[in-house]
Amino acid sequence: MRHFIGIHDLGFARANKILARALEMKQNKYRSRLLEGKVIALIFEKASTRTRVSFDVGVRQLGGSTILLTPAESQLGRAEPLRDTARVLSRYCDGLVVRTFGQAKLEELMAFGSIPVINALTDEGHPCQVLSDLLTIYERTPDFSKLRVSWIGDGHNMARSWMEAAIYYPFELFMACPKGYEPDSAYVDACGKAGARIFLCNDPRLGIAGAHYVNTDVWASMGQEEEQLERVKAFKDFCVDEELMALARPDAKFLHCLPAHRGEEVSEAVFESENSLVFDEAENRLHMQKALMEWVFSGD
Ligand code: CP
Ligand code: NVA
């Protein structure tokens, strides 16, 4: 049985193939009966538009159906232990797509359940999103070896998945995070030792210099809403605006997982510019979810 918790689950061989497979699915408007008769539970402990809908539509396009569980409308919100939920859902459903807080919750679902678990975002990573972002790059510049990708902002879940991606795909990752908001140094070291080319600094001007693709994310992620005010102060020099973008390559493209806060991490002008790929990225969520589910459920 396969789970998809992070890009490491794919390994090098499949990481190389999954972008081409997702692109093929996009070009062919791919449909199949792979999930016919199967029911996938979508467990969302945090809000979602793109991830939830792209998984829901993706499952249907592969012939299956879904059930959405949120804390408000299930016993999850009344503290039923996850280990019990995992064992119950394994008797009804064929897979779990889970958005939650700590990654340990996914581990508990995997340990006690007996069906595949797919990571739809945790505090530690958002691998489905980063693979979709890589698909957005791949369809324009398939040779990653000469690419510089910049990460400007919080060293949180998205940044961590970008670091993991840099192990499996040969781009350079330049990261600029405010002091105190860098990714965990042990994780940076581990990715570096595994082969990722990561350069970490606190200066967004240095972090964006010469980038082909520039990435950012909200300053306060889900679960950090109470830190919003202090984060606005700490991140004040980290708005990706036209002045900052001018330090990247002249044809540099802008990426954002969405939802975006215009006037905070990105200016309206950059967000709406012709170099902004944000809606192609959002579309690619659907194609990548199908490629991932094919890998998880076909055993292929
Ligand atoms: N990018 C992303 O995961 O969006 P949602 O929170 O809308 O799912
Ligand atoms: N870092 C953001 C990503 C949202 C898709 C969050 O976790 O809220």
Keywords:
single chain, 300 residues, alpha/beta, Rossmann fold, 2 domains, five-stranded parallel beta sheet, four-stranded parallel beta sheet, 41% helix, globular, binds phosphoric acid mono(formamide)ester, binds norvaline
Walkthrough of the structure:
41% of the residues lie in helices and 14% in strands. The chain is α/β, with parallel strands linked by helices and 300 residues long. The chain folds into 2 domains: 7-125 and 285-298, Rossmann fold (3-Layer(aba) Sandwich), CATH 3.40.50.1370; 128-281, Rossmann fold. The strands form 2 sheets. The protein has a 5-stranded parallel beta sheet. A 4-stranded parallel beta sheet has the order 2-1-3-4, sandwiched between helices. Helix 6 links the parallel strand 5 (148-152) and strand 6 (172-176). The longest helix is centred in the C-terminal third of the chain and has 21 residues, at 278-298. The protein is globular and about 55 Å long. The structure holds phosphoric acid mono(formamide)ester and norvaline. Norvaline binds next to helix 6.
Instruction: Report the average pLDDT across residues.
Output: 97
Q: Using DSSP, what is the number of strands? A: 9
H/I helix tally: 12
**What's the CATH H-level superfamily name of the largest domain?**
Aspartate/ornithine carbamoyltransferase
With strands numbered from the N-terminus, the spatial order across the biggest sheet is: 7-6-5-8-9
Shape: globular
Major β-sheet profile: 5 strands, parallel
CATH class of the largest domain: Alpha Beta
Examine the coordinates and then state which fold CATH places here, giving the name of the CATH topology of the largest domain: Rossmann fold
What is the total domain count?
Answer: 2
Please identify the structural class as seen in this structure.
alpha/beta
Q: First CA to last CA: what distance?
A: 11 Å
